[in-house]
């Protein structure tokens, strides 16, 4: 799977993909993440990517030509399944969307800044708009990193223990069960006996019950 992320601040995206699971996925060749500097596609000497909003008002708006040039170049090189714009007014990212995207081939992600991007970029090029929650950040880079992380860890072969993604919160509309590790007794705070029993089916049953209980208490909406 390949992600092409178009950003005016590519430096913001260096670290998130250079560690841990995302780094391993790229080393294994399962995911390719390429960040493009929007400014490289800006016409003129100024390399400007934004301009004043028509109709007046505060904040700058990102212009069409650099995004159009970058998207068109990418599309001339390969087919894309989605062109995603990270935006607070998009559909809110959840595990279902992450699962859907994890079976795609090539995805372009656009990161906005300032007041946002010219509406016509959205109308002409964008196939899907995704928000990471009901709050506003200063740019689309952190949301893009969140989206790529959520998707890449679901691609088969990325996590060393493949079943571990399946038991995570929101897969099967359940929150995850509580987890414990050594020591079994910390200053009198003990690990539940069942986890020390070695009885795998019973442990599985306990985890399922805990997951249901936790979901009932914290996110009853998931059980509806
Ligand atoms: N004026 C816009 C916000 C612009 S914030 C509005 O009110 O909707 C600048 C950029 O940051 C956005 O274009 C988007 O790419 C990104 N961004 C900010 N918050 C986001 C969120 N919750 N989810 C996804 N992207 C977000």
Description:
The protein has 224 residues and is α/β, with parallel strands linked by helices. The chain folds into 2 domains: 2-152, SPOUT methyltransferase, trefoil knot domain (Alpha/beta knot), CATH 3.40.1280; 169-223, tRNA(m1g37)methyltransferase, domain 2 (Trp Operon Repressor, Chain A), CATH 1.10.1270.20. The chain has 7 helices and 9 strands. The protein has helices at 20-27, 64-77, 95-101, 119-124, 141-152, 163-166, 200-218; strands at residues 2-7, 32-37, 50-51, 61-62, 82-92, 106-110, 128-131, 185-186, 189-190. The strands form 3 sheets. Strands 2-1-6-5-7 form a 5-stranded parallel sheet. Bound molecules: S-adenosyl-L-homocysteine (SAH). S-adenosyl-L-homocysteine (SAH) binds at residues 86-89, 111-113, 115-116, 131-133, 135-137, 139-140, 143.
Bound small molecules, deduplicated = S-adenosyl-L-homocysteine
Percentage beta strand = 15-25%
Output the CATH topology of the largest domain. Alpha/beta knot
Q: What do we call the CATH homologous superfamily of the largest domain? A: SPOUT methyltransferase, trefoil knot domain
Q: Are there runs of 5+ residues with pLDDT below 50, and where? A: none
The helix content, as a percent range, equals 25-40%
Order of helices and strands: EHEEEHEHEHEHHEEH
The main sheet comes to: 5 strands, parallel
**Quantity of strands, as a count:** 9
What's the architecture of the largest domain, going by CATH?
3-Layer(aba) Sandwich
Task: State the shape.
Answer: elongated
Counted up, domains total 2
Oligomerization: single chain
Mean pLDDT: 96
InterPro entries: Alpha/beta_knot_MTases (IPR029028), tRNA_m1G_MeTrfase_C_sf (IPR023148), tRNA_m1G_MeTrfase_TrmD (IPR002649), tRNA_m1G_MTases_N (IPR029026), tRNA_MeTrfase_TRMD/TRM10 (IPR016009)
Enzyme class: transferase
Organism: Mucilaginibacter psychrotolerans
GO molecular function: tRNA (guanine(37)-N1)-methyltransferase activity
């Amino acid at each position: 799977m390949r992600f092409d992320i178009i950003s005016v601040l590519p430096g913001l995206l260096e670290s998130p993909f250079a560690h841990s699971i995302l780094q391993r996925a790229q080393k294994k060749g399962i995911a390719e993440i390429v960040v493009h500097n929007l400014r490289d596609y800006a016409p003129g000497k100024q390399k400007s990517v934004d301009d004043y909003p028509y109709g007046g008002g505060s904040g700058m708006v990102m212009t069409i030509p650099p995004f159009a040039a970058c998207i068109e170049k990418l599309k001339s090189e390969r087919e894309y399944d989605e062109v995603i714009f990270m935006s607070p007014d998009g559909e809110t990212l959840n595990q279902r969307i992450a699962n859907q995207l994890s079976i795609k081939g090539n995805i372009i992600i656009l990161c906005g800044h300032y007041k946002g991007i010219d509406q016509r970029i959205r109308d002409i090029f964008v196939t899907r708009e995704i928000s990471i929650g009901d709050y506003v950040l200063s740019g689309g880079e952190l949301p893009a990193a969140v989206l790529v992380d959520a998707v890449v860890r679901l691609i088969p072969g990325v996590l060393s223990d493949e079943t571990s993604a399946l038991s995570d919160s929101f897969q099967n509309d359940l929150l995850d069960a509580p987890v414990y590790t050594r020591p079994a007794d910390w200053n009198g705070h003990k690990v539940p006996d069942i986890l020390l029993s070695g009885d795998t089916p019973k442990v599985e049953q306990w985890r399922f019950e805990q997951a249901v209980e936790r979901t009932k208490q914290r996110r009853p909406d998931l059980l509806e």
